[in-house]
Amino acid sequence: MGVKKIEMKIDSREIKSFFYSQYFSDGLRMSFGILFPSLLFMQFNRFDLGLTLSLGALCICTIDNPGPVLHKRNAMAVGNICLFLVAVITGFARLNVFTLALEATLLPFFFSMFTVYGNRAASVGTSALLVMIFMMDKAEKPADVVGFSAMILAGGLWYMLFSLVFFGIRPYRAAQQTLAENIADIAVFLRIKAAFYLPETDIDENYRKLVSQQIKVSQHQDAVRELLFKSRVMVKESTSASRILVLTFVDLVDMFEQILATHYDYNHIREKFKDAGILNEIAIRLQNMADELDRIGYMVLSNKRNKFNPDFMTELEQLKTRIDEIGKNDQATSTLALKKILINLRDLNDRIKSLHRYYTSKDSEMLIGGAVENEYSRFVTHQDYAPHIFFDNFTFTSAAFKHALRVSLVCLIGFIAGKTVAIGHHSYWILLTIVVILKPGFSLSKQRNYQRLIGTIVGGVIGIVILKYIPSKDTQFILLVILMIGTYSFLRLNYVVSVIFMTPYVLILFKILGVGLVFQERIVDTLIGASVAFIASYLIFPTWEYDQIKDNMEDVLDANIIYLIRIAESIAGIEVGTIEYKLARKDVFVKSANLSAAFERMTSEPKSKQKKIKDVHKFVVLNHILSSYIATIASSLSDKKSNQNQAENLKMIRRSIAVLNDISKKLGGEVIDFNLGKTTPQNATVAQNPHSDEILLKEQLGFINRISNDIARVTQNIVGPAS
Questions:
Q1: How many CA atoms lie within 13 A of 151 on its CB side?
Q2: Exposed, middle or buried: residue 33 (CB in 10 Å: 0-12, 13-18, 19+)?
Q3: Half-sphere exposure of 583 (CA within 13 A, CB side)
Q4: Of 69, 182, 398, 423, which has the fewest Cβ atoms less than 10 A away?
Q5: Residue 516 region by backbone torsions, left for phi larger than 0, else alpha for psi between -120 and 50, else beta
Q6: What does the pLDDT read at residue 639?
Q7: What is the pLDDT of residue 234?
Q8: 554, 664 in Cβ contact below 8 A?
Q9: For residue 571, pLDDT beyond 80
Q10: pTM for the whole thing?
């Protein structure tokens, strides 16, 4: 039987999913919020006033990122204060070229330092820099500066109120959309896992795909946690809609652990069962389940119920029969690993059915148990906004400080270039390009640079074609609205596509405003800004991932040690709460994703800066294998507990923890104490005839020990002298 290739297929459901998604919803909301003031005041022959209000809305919409409404409100409120102050400062500073140059140097440094407070605070800084850039060419008289700035503030306040009302009407929609996207991410992750069982799959390359996909899963899980667990209304209120979303997410995280726990020594399994044909069948079952997860994700996204409730038990029973046949025909071959995979597949089937019941049963409210635990608030991180954090980062060991200095100096260079070599009357595009492209890390700046250039050129050609062959003003305006929605819909989804939409939208806008065709000017200014930003990211206080990735490695080792300690406590008979297990698990997932993301960024850096990259890649893969085996054991212990071979099992765990602690110490970390005390149950025994689960547990603990030692050897190469 052939096996489906893992590939993206664009079908009608995927197209519909986009229009149901948070990305398209963001595009509609932002476009309306920006356009409405201009269209409204156009009716009263005050288009200039409408444009000013739209400018304020445009700046504040950059803060309107996914997250709890309370966080949006606070961030946009602070953003509006910054908006007004920066508009006033720039309005007066522009009266003298030297004071304007000073502002173009100091404010980028100040607002770029906001990155120390997280992404939402960084977006507040970006909003303030945008209004500074747009105000530079506004020739307002000194007496009119405050009034003009107040109009910009009014536009920002309009957008904030509109956005909050938008989310107030459908308070659960954002969480629903993000949850559906997370389900789709896990479906892709499951397909990649399925590929390990196919003989033609390159295992090393598949691991690279797996850790890359884990980044997306972790990012979207964090986004869902933000929306669900940081909103006390969402978690505590008694409506079935909010409860189902919370419980779906809890089940989904458990499912992800279950998928992660289907990890084995794939080279060994392939060699052992290569002629049996059973591995292809396992891959097919996994891919079928991934397809079903996609259907569930679409149900969640579209709010459409599906009466069909799939059950893979028939297929799994057929798989069990095949496994039994292999055991009978070749008694020398142990099928224990295959049986464990079968158990995981059954558990996965049960979880899929559980998700289906939430969204297909007419009495789904009856499926919801008691109140959701208040302890779920422990699963989200809380950002500290203490002032000392800002000043504590005034050191060259801080990546944020170096980034702020880089942005400051490059903005000054861009300002001078705009006044000396730029063509036309929109030299602020140089600064705008710099602010958009420059990111804390080289790889992100490089990526944005390419995307901005490609998008501008392709979009510019499209814009010229539209303006040349579609002279109708009405048609041009309709296209402008469509392009604007596309710009904001793809802003987070695919930046290069967003810029392709943005460039013709800007060209059409300037043509409607009577400015004329500015394609050449935009291309030149974009090239200048992109070139300056790219060179600066390499030469001015550069930040390379190798210098920081050791911190990520240390974090993930510490997380795995704590996870192992929870397992040891459970084996020793100490009661470990479900929340404690899940907190340890969540920490491993998040820290592993952070490490994988840092490694991906490292691969985009210049070859000369990719120090020890092969060893770092080995570390990332070995860490994934280690985390998978720990998750496998944690999953099995949650189902049944045994005291057989307790002393030996604890000894193996202690050995692994000691090795991992030693590695963490070499990376600059602190040793995590591990002391169970006198907690061994009296009925602990050494098994005379160990159960198959005990044998498998011993094998897995042994493998964890070997992986820990492999990680130690790789780490020694990494911390050694650079070659």
A1: 20
A2: buried
A3: 15
A4: 423
A5: left
A6: 55
A7: 47
A8: yes
A9: yes
A10: 0.85
CA distance 235 to 247: 10
Lowest pLDDT segment from 103-107, 169-173, 556-560: 169-173
Contact 293, 180 (CB under 8 A): no
- Residue whose tokens read 């797996």: 210
The answer to whether 140 and 40 have CB atoms below 8 angstroms apart is no
Looking at the predicted structure, is the pLDDT value of residue 417 above 70?
yes
Distance CA 494, CA 515 (A): 29
Q: Which residue has the tokens 């003298």?
A: 96
Cross-strand partners of 644: 685
- Tokens (6 digits) for 212: 């890359």
What tokens does 571 get? 């084996």
Tell me what percent of the residues of the chain surpass a pLDDT of 70.
Answer: 87
Give the max Cα distance, the chain: 94
522 and 475 in contact (C-beta within 8 Å)?
no
Question: In angstroms, rounded to a whole number, what is the distance separating the alpha carbons of residues 212 and 592?
Answer: 11
Give 598-618 pLDDT, tens digit per residue.
Answer: 888 888 888 888 888 889 999
Q: At what angle do helices 313-329 and 278-302 cross, to 10 degrees?
A: 160
Dihedral class, residue 514 (left if φ above 0, else alpha if ψ from -120 to 50, else beta)? left
For residue 193, give the nearest of 266, 250, 254 by alpha carbon.
Answer: 266
Which string of b and e fits 205-240 if b means at least 16 CB within 10 Å?
ebbbbbbebbbbbbebbbbbbbbbbbbeebbeeeee
CA neighbor of 358 nearest in space, from 349, 367, 350: 367
- What do you get for the CA distance between the two ends of the chain, in Å? 48
Residues 6+ apart with CB under 8 A from 357: 309, 364, 367
Mention every residue, 6+ apart, whose C-beta is less than 8 A from residue 670.
664
The whole-angstrom separation of Cα 512 and Cα 503 is: 14
Looking at residue 340, its pLDDT comes to 80
Per-residue pLDDT reduced to its tens digit, 433-475: 899 888 888 888 888 888 888 998 999 899 989 988 998 888 9
Please name the residue that has the structure tokens 């050995």. 655
Q: Tokens 């196919």 map to which residue?
A: 198
Do residues 480 and 512 make contact, with C-beta atoms less than 8 angstroms apart?
yes
**SS (HEC) of 382-432:** CCCCCHHHHHHCCCCCCHHHHHHHHHHHHHHHHHHHHHHCCCCCCCHHHHH
